[in-house]
Each structure stands twice: as structure tokens, then as C-alpha cells.
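My main concern about presentation is that the manuscript never shows what a single data entry looks like. For the editor and my fellow referees, an illustration may be useful. For illustration, here is how one protein appears when written out as sequence plus C-alpha cells:

***
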Amino acid sequence: MRQTNYEPLSPLSFLERSAFVYPEKKAVIYNDFTATYAEFKQRVEKFATALKQQGISKDDKVAFLCPNLPPLLEAHYAVPLVGGVLVSINIRLSSQEVAYILQHSESKMLFIDTEFAGVIKPILDEIKDIKIVNICDVQPKAFDGPDYEEFISVEPEEFFFGVEDELQPITLNYTSGTTGKPKGVLYTHRGAYLNALGEILEFGCNSSTTYLWTLPMFHCNGWCFTWGITAAGGTHVCLRKVVPEEIYRQIEIQEVSHLCAAPIVLIGMANYKGIGEVKMKRHLNIMTAGAPPSPTVIKNMEAVGCTVTQTYGLTEVYGPHSICEWKPKWNELEVEERARIKARQGVPYITSVYMDVVNPATMEPVPHDGTTIGEIVMRGNNVMAGYYKQPEETEQAFRGGWFHSGDLAVTHPNGYVEIKDRMKDIIISGGENISTVEVENVIYQHPDVLEVAVVAIPHEKWGEVPKAFIYLKEGANPTKEEIIEFCRERIARFKVPKEIEFGELPKTSTGKIMKYKLRSKEWEGREKNVN
């Protein structure tokens, strides 16, 4: 018997409500495909029924390697509807990286868009016990097993759109760790529910919202907008290729009102040659995160009639945790000053509640003077349940009763936070996290390499990219191109160093490589870019 004054929170309830309130409203649009909310719910019920028939039940992992298509959106409801846990994998990863995630997560099924069949074919022997379903959007069937539409062509059962335990896992998202191995970040139904509501509250979404999927759904489950837009009763516009021409085409024909994007996407949009011909029928609201945007990017986008909102977070906090909450008095400032303020990380979401900048040694808050640097820490409703099968790493991340971000920042007199640097050596390139240790471990596999250090260097387009400093074994003479090609064969292309430099590496008296000296040389004469 259910309690009168308590209901476990789950974003599954969002779909049930919107299908009841807006049954005939368009919920999903993708090219010629459309689904009303009633149809969206029915497709989810069919999908969940098919999963159940395959034996998927509580805590079973179901993986997706798929761009922003309707099947992946439907999976955010269908998989947890049968008690399963969705594992949405970055489509830019290499075969071995995907294999690791599938094996570590213990996924029982894999739904793959067949454009990415080449990623899976080399690892079929390693994942032979995983059932595969083909998603045939632009390429024909590539593997044994059904295609997606065939798979969900079943008589749907009735489901309860909720959970008995709101702390039950709903998704498992993999992010790079400082050890180089991806960590599995567990989200709960409660956390997903509250962060989804936080997103639509902070972003001003409602039933008239038309949301364009420029943000990958594999990034923190699309910052929880996979559930948030449904909660608002808005319309999801799916997008396969995130390129400026197609973004603007969809903005115009679908009358898009909202989208989310990393700064690299905004750079492409701002520099699109045909931008002057774009006819925006509605004011466009943009949320950006993944890396702090430069004031120039914000200024350029707002010059074409958009409003840009900066948020900040990590995979471990369901995506955005804080927002640069705008104050009307700032509208009177010069455009450059407005853009500079908008690039700050701001204050916690309504649903996040807690964030601070502290001295990591004492855990005491730093003075609100805009100059004293400390570490950003968070706690509250949208902090992860923990790292999957990594209790020691979870305990370390939660030390002192806070989640430690590893990001260095200051707090301004008005309480707004601004990132200044990172404690870790993680490189954020175009919104993608790159572990320097992971790249170094790959380069160390080269027979000619004795020592290597990878650091971030500035890049006009991507914000920052990896550069490898290599000390070779005596008599070895590989070319820079050979090292780069060696990396391309083993890791995702975006992780491959863009530059190589051979020579001795600076070290401490104890033999530790001094990366800060290498970084300082590369960033000399310009402010450290945190993009």
C-alpha cells in the first residue's frame, strides 16, 4: 500500500503526465518522423515490453551507441521502466574504450546505430555474450539480431511509471578519471527527477518550448533534458549531425526556442557563413556548459539575437550544478562586461542548493574577494550515488562530506563563483574530457618512447588540445606523424595529441616530471584558457 503523503521521485512520471495532459501534442520530431505524447508513451511501453521479453529486469544494464535519435530518447524511459539501468556511450570513443565500458558495466544488451558498426566489429569476440539490436537510420543492418523498429513491434504491456525506491539507479554514465580509466557514475531516479526540474526552471522551459538536441544525450543524459523537456510538455527535435548548417535549418523550420551546447558548438554557429540569412522565428535561448565559454563567444552569439546562459557542473553532479543567474541591473553594462560576467560559473541551481569554494586542506570557505583560489565542492540532491564498483574512489571524492570537483576557482564579493584553473590535468577540448594519464599510457606503449608528459595547449577552435612532450630511447628516431598515427589506432581521435615535441623533460629532485613548466611555456603571454 502506497503512503498518502509520500511518493518516490522518478522522471518516468513526467512521460505519464505529459501523455495525459498533452496526448495530441508533438513530443518528438526527427526528419519525417513525428510522435505525439500519446504515441511517444506507447512506443516506450512497446520498447519496455520487448526488453522484458529479453529478460531485462532490475539493475540490468542496457547500452546504447547512438547519436541523438528517437530510440535513444525512448531508452531513457523504457530501460528504467523495467528496472534496468541505461548506459549511453560516447559515439566518439575507440573500439577498445567501448569494449571496456561494455565489460565494466556488465551490459546485457547493446543497441547500436549501424553507422558505428566499424567500432563494434573489431570487439565482437570480447562482447559475444551481449545481445545486439541494430538501429538502421542511415546505414543498413550490420549485425545478427533485429533492427530497432522490428524489436519494439510487440503488443505493449501496462507499466507503472514510477519506482518503489527513488534511490534505485536509473543510468550509468562513464567519464574519464585521473587514472586514465573511465569511471562509471551512477545516477538515481531521485537525482534525475530533481535535476531535470532544475534544468527547466533555470532555463525557462514550458509546454511551448521547442528544444533542439545539439547536446549529446550521452553527456550526462543530455544534462537531464531528456527528462526535463518531457516534464515541461515541450517538443524534442532530434538531430543526428551537429553542424551549423543543419542546426540553423532546424532552428528555422521547427521554430526552435531552446538548445544546449558546449562552447565549441557555439563557435561554429557564430562563425557560420550563412548566419545572416537565418530567419529565427522565435527568440533563441542557449545554455552552454562543458567548459567555460570565452566572453567573445557569448558576445558573438548574442549579437545574432540569442540569449546565452552559462552553467557549470560535471558528470558526477548530473551535468549542470550552478548557473550564472542573471540580474537585470547588469543589462546596463557595456557588452564586453556583460559577456565577462556571463562567463562565470555563478551560484547553485534551485534544486542543487549547495556549492562552495574552499581551502582543500582545511575545508574552510575562501574569502569572497575574487582573488583567493580554492577548490569547488558540492553536495545536495544532484550529486551522484557513487562510482560503479569503485568504493575507494567514491570515498575519496566524497571526503569531508562534500563532492570534490578538482576545479580551482574564486568567489566574487557577490557570491558568484568563477573557475580559474584545474587541480587535475584533465584537458577539456571542445567540451570533451581527456585524461592526460590515459593518453600518456598509450604513448608509453610505443617501443621508442622512454618518458612522456601530456598537457593542454591553447587552440583557437577547440579551446585547448593535448600536446605530448616525449623523451625518446637512445638511438630511436620516430617521426611526429608516426607517434600521432600510433595514438589514432588506440584511442578516440579527439584524444590524440595535436602536437608532439621531442626532448628532455623537466623534473623535480625526486624524478617527478614538472608538467606545470611545460604548460607555462605553452601558455606564455596569454591568460590560461579553461575551455
The first strand starts at residue 26 and ends at 30. The longest helix spans residues 37-53. The domain at 425-523 is CATH 3.30.300.30 (GMP Synthetase; Chain A, domain 3). The chain has a mean pLDDT of 91.
